[in-house]
């Protein structure tokens, strides 16, 4: 388990590198996750708030556990966020947004290998989303508190590799 101060510092480094990458790639419309505090995922709130101030559009998801799907919603600074029964922050409103013009997606993960293969949280929701948008030119960007491992040996045919992974010390391009 990471020390609280180390976790805060690594988050700041990831956020700064992510914002710089988004600027370099001219990302104006992106999808992100809202970090689950108990999972110690890299935080995205600073990325979101800075993006709003730069005029970027932000999408977030809401998970339908019964149908094993996710809906996507525009996220504005005035929107209310609710925590669902699994501790996942989600939009309070129901209006869905299309993914057609999406330029990037920030992906939560536990680990990534040197080929961009990722280990998520095991339910497959982001695997489905990445497959759904695979025909679009969307930059798939993972945020990870540590660097890549050499190899994730159990990659499946339906898995979609990342284009980038941002760690506290480096942006990896695959």
- Name the average pLDDT: 93
Distance from first to last alpha carbon: 28 Å
- Low-confidence region ranges: none
Measured on Cα atoms, how large is the radius of gyration?
A: 15 Å
Percent of residues in helices comes to: 10-25%
Biggest sheet statistics: 7 strands, mixed
CATH architecture: 3-Layer(aba) Sandwich
Q: Can you count the beta strands?
A: 11
Shape by Cα distribution: globular
Order of helices and strands: HEHEEEEEEEHEEE
Oligomer: single chain
Q: Helix count, per DSSP?
A: 3
Q: What is the strand content?
A: 15-25%
Order of strands, main sheet, comes to 3-2-1-6-9-10-11
* The named CATH superfamily: NagB/RpiA/CoA transferase-like
Class by helix and strand content?
A: alpha/beta
Q: What is the top-level CATH class?
A: Alpha Beta
How many domains comprise the coordinates?
1
């Amino acid at each position: 388990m990471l020390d609280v101060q180390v976790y805060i510092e690594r988050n700041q480094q990831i956020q700064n590198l992510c914002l710089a990458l988004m600027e370099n790639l001219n990302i104006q419309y992106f999808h992100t996750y809202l970090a689950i505090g108990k999972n110690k995922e890299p935080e995205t709130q600073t990325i979101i708030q800075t993006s709003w101030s730069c005029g970027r559009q932000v999408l977030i998801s809401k998970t339908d556990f019964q149908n094993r799907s996710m809906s996507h919603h525009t996220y504005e600074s005035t929107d209310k966020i609710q925590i669902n029964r699994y501790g996942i922050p989600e939009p309070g409103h129901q209006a869905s947004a299309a993914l057609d013009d999406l330029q990037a997606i920030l992906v939560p993960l536990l680990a990534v290998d040197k080929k961009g293969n990722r280990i998520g949280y095991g339910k497959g929701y982001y695997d489905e989303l990445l497959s759904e948008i695979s025909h679009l030119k969307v930059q798939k960007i993972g945020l990870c508190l540590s660097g890549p491992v050499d190899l994730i040996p159990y990659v499946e045919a339906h898995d979609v590799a990342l284009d980038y992974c941002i760690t506290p010390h480096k942006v990896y391009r695959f």
